[in-house]
Specification:
Elements: H1 10-13, E1 48-56, H2 61-64, E2 69-74, H3 87-90, E3 100-101, H4 103-114, E4 120-124, H5 130-142, E5 148-153, H6 159-163, E6 171-174, H7 181-188, H8 193-208, E7 213-214, E8 220-229, H9 235-249, E9 254-258, H10 279-292, E10 297-299
Parallel strand pairs: 2-4, 4-5, 5-6, 6-8, 8-9, 9-10
Antiparallel strand pairs: 1-2, 1-3, 7-8
Helix pairs in contact: 4-5, 9-10
Length: 321
């Protein structure tokens, strides 16, 4: 399979990485030279730092389908949520040299999964790795591969950067976390998160609209799905997020409201975040969804907090890595 790379001009393909010489990809605006040792907030260099490439079947039904989605998990993050369930790879304090892979290695892993019948490719936490994401997509296109591309983001994105992705991304999958500045600062070290997320999701909506598009096999080909993770002790935040979506974006947009929150060891002693949702909290949010008039999307049942606990050190689960 390696012979497929012979005709590629890698020098040309890697040109998007030049953006990393003065990195202002995300709202942190670090201006860091990621080719140097002086890194920015995310502590990410210019390499392809990917923790895992694997076939995932736990996304929304229109995304996973019958065959699943090939998910590419980048390391580190431009948010540092204290409760992050992917903390094993998202924490900016660890040295991720073990995850530095060549473009060829990554492409071969992706193609291996796509060849299993899956034609959808997801990039998870890509905001600080957009040039690398573009390189991967461009390389696949040069090889005649055109999977549906899903941009799975925390919504801490810059509008001008999202505009540059209009011809790259088919499906936007943002997690709209907060409407209140105090908890966005306390939990994710980003006081301006609500304002940034509002603008970025409006741009995603401008590009894709409210309605999802499908091919003849009923597989998603384009659209926007707004996720929201309900946090224990913060039901009013969830209601404020949902109210904003209904009134300022569209009541017809697809939403995915998640009850899967599970306290990691890092927040086990926290007053609110140290426990799972209660049934009353969950029902309050679900009732509010009905009050607002949403009709498109998905909700999880209360048992989901036991089903979505990733372990990036489990070789069996991530055997494609």
């Amino acid at each position: 399979m390696a012979d497929i790379f012979e005709a590629l001009n890698f020098k040309e393909l890697l040109l998007p990485l030049n953006e990393l010489k003065n990195c202002n990809l995300c709202p942190r605006n670090c201006s860091a030279d990621r080719f140097s040792e002086k890194l920015g907030y995310c502590k990410s260099n210019a390499s392809f730092n990917i923790a895992s490439v694997f076939l995932h079947k736990g996304e929304e039904p229109v995304i996973s389908g019958e065959k699943g989605i090939c998910n590419v998990f980048f390391t580190h993050c431009n948010l540092q949520c204290v409760y992050c369930q992917n903390y094993q790879i998202s924490d900016n304090s660890f040295n991720d040299i073990v995850y530095q892979q060549s473009l060829k290695e990554i492409i071969l892993k992706i193609i291996k999964i796509l060849d299993q019948g899956c034609n959808i490719l997801g990039f998870v936490s890509p905001s600080h790795f957009i040039p690398q994401m573009k390189v991967i997509i461009n390389t696949l296109h040069k090889l005649g591969r055109h999977p549906v591309v899903v941009y799975n983001t925390n919504a801490y994105d810059k509008v001008e950067v999202l505009k540059s992705l209009e011809n790259y991304v088919d499906v936007y999958l943002p997690d709209f976390k907060y409407m209140f500045n105090d908890i966005s600062e306390e939990y994710s070290k980003a006081k301006n998160y609500p304002e940034i997320a509002k603008a970025s999701i409006k741009e995603m909506f401008r590009q894709k609209g409210a309605l999802l598009k499908f091919n003849k096999k009923n597989q998603i080909t384009s659209g926007l799905i707004i996720r929201h993770l309900i946090l224990p002790g913060h039901i009013e935040n969830s209601k404020a997020v949902l109210k904003y979506i209904a009134e300022e974006i569209s009541i017809d947009v697809n939403i995915s409201v998640m009850s899967q929150y599970y306290p990691t060891p890092r927040v086990s002693a926290h007053n609110f975040l140290g426990r799972c949702l209660t049934e009353k909290e969950y029902n309050d949010v679900i009732e509010y969804i009905d009050e607002l008039g949403f009709s498109n999307g998905w909700i999880q049942d209360m048992s989901s907090n036991n089903n979505y606990i990733p372990d990036f050190f489990d070789e069996e689960v991530f055997k494609n890595n």
